Amino acid sequence: MKSLLWAFWYILPAYFANASPVLVGGGRPIDGGRFWRDGRRILGDGKTWRGFAGGVAIGTAVGMVQYFITPSFYGSFRTAFLLAFALSFGALFGDLVGSFFKRRANLPRGYPAIGLDQLGFLISALAFAYPVKTLDSGKIIFLLIVSPFIHWGANYFAYRMGWKGVPW
Ligand code: CTP
Ligand code: MG
Hints:
By secondary structure, this protein is mostly helical. The chain is 67% helix and 0% strand. The chain has 7 helices and no strands. It has helices at 2-19, 21-24, 49-69, 71-74, 77-104, 116-129, 137-160. The mean pLDDT is 96. Bound molecules: cytidine-5'-triphosphate (CTP) and magnesium ion (MG).
């Protein structure tokens, strides 16, 4: 049980990075309003530079706070910083890849894609973080199972708070 809490502790920057663009995002879209050769937007208006940069900054900051709470989990500040940055960058990069595929499937911005929305960011975060600090496979499977529920819960909360227009 306790070891499963370490799985959450490990992945926390990715959760924060993925959730914060709802609050800090907006402005110029990363695709600059451009279209792919299928005539659809490359990524869409839901993926902005401010959301990306803000999410990476917030996720990385979370990791630095985590270091001061549990330094021995990370070993060094450098590891904590690099891990949080990799998890945050990976999460938001995975989110962009997800939107790219949603647009190719002709799904409008904000339209749910079950599986991709909940796990794309997570798998990408784990992949980017892998060279810095790994998580054993049991904990990875645990995160893959519980993260969709946390994602739905967090999105429902954001919806009820009026931060986003749809509960997913
Ligand atoms: N957001 C942002 N920049 C990002 C990611 C998200 O500004 N890089 C903001 C946008 O306002 C977005 C909201 O966070 O609408 C919720 O993010 P998400 O659910 O990932 O985007 P969707 O609007 O659902 O767009 P998509 O259909 O492409 O997933
Ligand atoms: Mg969405």
